[in-house]
Specification:
single chain; mainly alpha; elongated
């Protein structure tokens, strides 16, 4: 989806993932695709691309949010 997508881990994996003593090969093994259907993928408009926008309009379909001119 995105080349800088964060790691999405099950809650039970958090302690081991965050433990600095976890060997790198074990941490890499934890990076597995999520089960099918766990994430919802949908198109959103350009409004979401501006970091100052932090509201429900970020979830609007493309073309649904009218940008402010000034």
């Amino acid at each position: 989806i995105h080349h800088r997508m964060p790691a999405l881990l099950p809650l039970a994996a958090y302690p081991e993932w965050l433990d600095s003593k976890t060997p790198i090969d074990r941490a890499q093994a934890m990076l597995q695709p999520l089960p099918e259907g766990l994430l919802l993928v949908r198109a959103v408009g350009d409004y979401v691309n501006d970091t100052k926008n932090d509201d429900i309009r970020c979830f609007a379909a493309p073309g649904a949010v009218q940008s402010e001119l000034f």
